[in-house]
Amino acid sequence: MPSALPDGEPMPESGALPPYALQGAVDRPLGFYLHVPYCATRCGYCDFNTYTATELRGSGGVLASRDNYADTLTDEIRLARKVLGDDTRPVRTVFVGGGTPTLLAAADLVRMLDAVREEFGLADDAEVTTEANPESVDPAYLAELRAGGFNRISFGMQSAKQHVLQVLDRTHTPGRPEECVAEARAAGFDHVNLDLIYGTPGESDDDWRATLAAAVGAGPDHVSAYALIVEEGTGLARRIRRGEVPMTDDDEHADRYLIADKTLVAAGFSWYEVSNWSTTPAGRCLHNELYWRGADWWGAGPGAHSHVGGVRWWNVKHPGAYAAALAEGRSPGAGRELLTAEDRRVERILLELRLSEGVELSLLRPAGLAAAGRALEEGLLSPGPYDSGRAVLTLRGRLLADAVVRDLVD
Q1: Residues 373-395: pLDDT tens digits?
Q2: Is the full-model pTM beyond 0.90?
Q3: Is 336 within 8 Å of 312 (Cβ atoms)?
Q4: In angstroms, what CA-CA distances link 19 with 87, 208, 341?
């Protein structure tokens, strides 16, 4: 089941933010994340805030229905307009995620985007993305999304090998994600991403090479490759605990990462974040860069997280409770956190170090600077950027990114 929400102070029923949150907002990009919490089935590795029809039956009634979900989410977008008041920033990025957003009709996704456009306006070069399950779209669906203003799409491929997909409980047919890339291009999408997962129990190096070859051959301009994390409470964790499949291995993860980077670089991709590669700067996911650079975004939908000017908050998780709050004129926020200057400094290090541009050494305390010096000596940080005042991970450093970050935030 979905993971728990963090602790925090109560969210005002109006959703109001402290006045300081919008100070200097004009200089920060604004994005919207729109969460669609529905899935046809639950994948064994997933602990996202998503629900199948069976899980919702009898626990939310009509309020939890996906049939009227676009209207419910639009209510939160209108709430955002009230909360942000006279904030004149046009929205720079919109990202529709899930769940499986494409379980909704294309017209519903377009209506959600239209609500953002009507309430806030979109920047002239706005990036508008939706995630998609390969089996839940067809050429007509993609054409409707493109005509409605979507210009980037992310397909969940995970693997090209059937036995790997079976372990992950993925239901799409091998080869279908590659077909989707061609269909998205034909529909006029400017940017197409494929999401891959490595380190699945039973996956071999050759399986992973075959997946990368299939992904590259499909012609996306962006690839995301993530190591499988086995979360407690998931179906896959229970299978591993029962001994049905082997536990994933960190050394195998490192080997697969090196294979991915070598393959993608040879195909013309460049890394710009530890788990993300693009063929051009324009192909980067700008929405994710908002997160990594501490910009402002409003997350609408059950369990969605938001951040504006050092205030972070999160919504109630269940679709029924979420819809009920909005129907009663209340914010669906479950709690919030007011970040201190130190919180924000630490988060900048945690997130920016993962980027190819790295993080400014001036953000580090003495202990962190000493750790950075050791990381440089150990080949984990690049000498050239270091001499210019930035900590940038080497390829070996990317393999140990979490450990490097822990040392630098001291």
Answers
A1: 999 999 999 999 999 999 999 99
A2: yes
A3: yes
A4: 12, 50, 16
